[in-house]
Design a protein that fits this description.
single chain, 261 residues, alpha/beta, TIM Barrel, 12 helices, 8 strands, globular, binds indole-3-glycerol phosphate
């Protein structure tokens, strides 16, 4: 069984919710990636989304964009990231999910990409600019390698399409909570909770909410309606300020789960 599936089975059994932090690989130098992964697991992460820096990150807000620019300035490449994950894999028990736009995968070569991330122990992949209609490009190879393709739905996705996407049944459904790009928000649309509830009702796989989340209050509100949260910009900001205490405090409500992996 894939690590992602196993993780959600355990969370479910314990009645716990998932905290999935996003980090930008190469921000602060690629050498610190393994220690950051280990730290996030210790703080209570259920899985970690590792972002690949890219020059045209269409879904990224200012915090993630800046982190991407810093990582690119450090000379970070997808090849080096995959090698670093391979190096870190034996010290990390929780699932590692690689988030990259399609272009770097193309440049790498689809088959070698899948083969290399499989060997590195990557458990899942998020490719935000690849719609359902285009995924035949890579989905069969990922499936053969037992790597979960994590798909996104948004506030504007019709429910019939959400059903179709969720029915693919990989990993979890990434439900985007805002009409816009990544980045910390103070409040969400009033209809968000009803939408999350509707997504949860039609999804045979776990539903995670992501985009704009930075406080424990938001996390507690949202996880009433879904199985967990993805937090990117806030985590990226705290790493760049080296504010590990605030990170540990923020994640503390999820911590009891860290020992189950
Ligand atoms: O930064 P936020 O608002 O907390 O949102 C998570 C997000 O950063 C991360 O999941 C992510 C970063 N870049 C993306 C592009 C598409 C989808 C998701 C992402």
């Amino acid at each position: 069984m894939n690590r992602i599936e196993k993780t959600f089975q355990l969370l479910n059994k314990n009645g716990s919710k998932a905290f999935v932090p996003y980090i930008m690989a190469g921000d602060g130098g690629l050498d610190c990636l393994p220690e950051r992964l280990v730290l996030l697991e210790q703080f209570g992460a259920a899985a970690i989304e590792v972002g690949v820096p890219f020059s045209d990150p269409v879904a990224d807000g200012p915090t993630i964009q800046q982190a991407g620019i810093r990582a690119l300035k450090n000379g970070t490449t997808l090849k080096d990231i995959v090698a670093k994950i391979a190096e870190a894999r034996s010290s990390v028990n929780i699932p590692i999910i690689l988030m990259t736009y399609l272009n770097p995968i193309y440049a790498y070569g689809i088959s070698s990409f899948v083969e290399d991330i499989q060997n590195a122990g990557v458990d899942g992949c998020i490719i935000p600019d690849m719609p359902l209609e285009e995924e035949a490009l890579i989905a069969p190879e990922l499936e053969a390698a037992e790597i979960e393709l994590i798909r996104l739905v948004t506030l504007t996705t019709p429910i019939e399409r959400i059903k179709q996407i969720a029915a693919k049944g990989n990993g979890f459904l990434y439900t985007v909570t805002v009409k816009g790009i990544t980045g910390v928000r103070n409040e969400f649309d009033g209809d968000l909770y009803a939408y999350l509830k509707a997504v949860k009702e039609v999804s045979p796989i776990p539903v995670l909410a992501g985009f704009g989340i930075s406080s424990q209050e938001q996390m507690q509100d949202l996880t009433k309606y879904c199985d967990g949260v993805v937090v990117g910009s806030k985590i990226v900001e705290l790493f760049s300020k080296n504010n590990l205490q605030e990170m540990e405090d923020l994640m503390s409500i999820f911590k009891q789960k860290s020992n189950m992996a």
